[in-house]
Structure formats: structure tokens, C-alpha cells
Specification:
Order of helices and strands: HEEEEEEEHH
Number of strands: 7
CATH architecture: Alpha-Beta Complex
Shape: globular
Oligomer: single chain
Bound molecules: nickel (II) ion
CATH class: Alpha Beta
Distance between the termini: 32 Å
Strand content: 25-35%
Radius of gyration: 16 Å
Length: 167
């Protein structure tokens, strides 16, 4: 397993729409393992492939019950449907330096995806789990959580980032 470089905003790779995955091979397993390693090293609770520079539809999501555990779910070609309710919660992103803020998300969602072997997965997710999946699926569509906040807040963040990057 290798820790990969995480690309950060405003790198254009984060705006690229990820391609559907059709080959369920050793290379894909290696990619998933690297993504998990990179996520836990960061540390974060979710990671999408575009964040490490690969525009393919794969995400890893932490599902650990305990602090030091490393249980994660790999979702290939994930699609969200039937969003229900709405809930505001704090979000940050490994690709958005030095920032977190409240973002509104569906409280409950349905997810269709494939696992690392290409088998079909179909399940409901809610609360924190649903939030992470929505955030990561956004990445695959080229969307960042800062696109889902007010333009005023986004503008302030851009100024803050510009200062940060000058240093
Ligand atoms: Ni993110």
C-alpha cells in the first residue's frame, strides 16, 4: 500500500467528472488499498479518486465504530437516489485546506454501487454515513463542499486561501 499525494483546491483535477469503472482487476484493488491508506494517513473519513489525481468513479468511506480501527467501505460507480430530509452539519475536505463549515445534506439516501469485485450493492444510508457518501459522490461529479455554501462564505474562504498560499 502506498500513500498517494492529495490534490487540493483549486487544482483542476477536482473539477473533472470521474469515468465509470469497468475493469475489476488487481490494479483496482491496489488503487482502493492505496486510497484507504492515504485517507487514514491524512487523516480523513472519506476519499474520492479524483483527490489523488485519478478521475475514476471510486470512493472509500470510513465505517469504523472505534477510534483506532480501520474499517472502510469501497464503493465503485456509486449513484445516489431518493434523498430524504435535510440536515445541516460541519464538513471539511482533505482537498480544501484549512476550512470547515456547515453544509446542508439529505438525511437519508439510497445508494446503488458496486464493490471491489464488481458485485452489485444497493443500500440505505443515513446521518454521518449518508453525509460522507454525499460528499464523496460530489467529488466524482467535480463538485466540492464549498460549492454548496453561500457565495459570501465562499468568497471569504478564497481570500483566506490566497493569503495562505502566498506564505
Ligand atoms: Ni472531500
Amino acid at each position: 500500500m502506498t500513500i498517494r499525494k492529495i490534490f487540493t483546491y483549486p487544482d483542476p483535477i477536482l473539477r473533472k467528472k470521474a469515468e465509470k469503472i469497468t475493469a475489476f482487476d488487481d490494479k483496482l484493488e491496489q488503487l482502493a488499498a492505496d486510497m484507504a491508506e492515504t485517507m487514514y494517513d491524512a487523516p480523513g473519513v472519506g476519499l474520492a479518486a479524483n483527490q489523488i489525481g485519478i478521475a475514476e468513479q471510486i470512493i472509500v468511506v470510513d465505517i469504523s465504530e472505534e477510534e483506532d480501527a480501520r474499517d472502510y467501505l469501497t464503493l465503485i460507480n456509486p449513484v445516489i437516489s431518493n434523498g430524504e430530509g435535510s440536515i445541516v452539519g460541519d464538513e471539511g475536505c482533505l482537498s480544501v485546506l484549512d476550512y470547515s463549515t456547515n453544509v446542508k445534506r439529505f438525511e437519508k439516501i439510497h445508494v446503488d454501487a458496486q464493490n471491489i469485485k464488481g458485485e452489485v450493492l444497493s443500500f440505505e444510508a443515513e446521518k454521518r454515513f449518508a453525509r460522507i457518501i454525499q460528499h464523496e459522490v460530489d467529488h466524482l461529479l467535480g463538485v466540492l463542499f464549498i460549492d454548496r455554501i453561500s457565495s459570501l462564505k465562499r468568497g471569504l474562504y478564497k481570500k483566506k486561501l490566497a493569503k495562505l498560499l502566498k506564505k
